[in-house]
Amino acid sequence: MSTPRFIFAKKDIRISDSVSVEKSDVGIIKSESEENTLVFFIRIWQNVDLNKNDFEIFDTQKTGDGFPQKICNICHKLLNTTEFARNQNAINNRPVRRPSCQECRKRLEGTNPTPKEKLNWLKNKPQNEPFECPICAKRTIAGVTSKVVLDHDHRSGKIRGWVCDSCNTGIGRFKDDIELVKRAIKFLE
């Protein structure tokens, strides 16, 4: 099996009234003829027949934190690495950037609680005391044997309460979307 060849769109391309390939969208070459190339675009999840002048081939092995460009894991565009916020440092103190671009992160992060609401909750943050997560029922010493975090609805900003860090991360991975959680339950069953 041959190695997939990846491309990025060099310009916006209208496919139909409701579907467009956008500049920098990443796709995978499916087949080629002399004039056109069939490309599967991840963001729109469909094949598109393109003129060879509409795209450029690139090496995915030369993208990411150590390179000038990186692919966003949400919009699937090839963007300058500077368009990804710094997240942490790797073992060799090299900066690691978030997997999603700053534009997509804005949509993901949504609405935050008001500073006043957050402050009211922080006054009663469990610390150095027994804590049982209301989701997974994990029992810990808050702030000692487990990190306890304030969870909120990213759509409304409404605070839901204190949960363990693992459950907060899990809720975030499911994008606060009950339908995704139901799919996960169905998958587990």
From TrEMBL:
Fetch the Gene3D superfamilies from UniProt.
3.30.60.130, His-Me finger endonucleases
Q: Which residues form the His-Me finger endonuclease beta4-alpha2 domain?
A: 59-110
Q: Which InterPro entries match?
A: Endonuclease_7 (IPR004211), Endonuclease_7_sf (IPR038563), His-Me_finger_sf (IPR044925), His_Me_b4a2 (IPR041475)
Q: What is this protein called?
A: His-Me finger endonuclease beta4-alpha2 domain-containing protein
Give the organism the record lists. Answer: Candidatus Curtissbacteria bacterium RIFCSPHIGHO2_12_FULL_38_9b
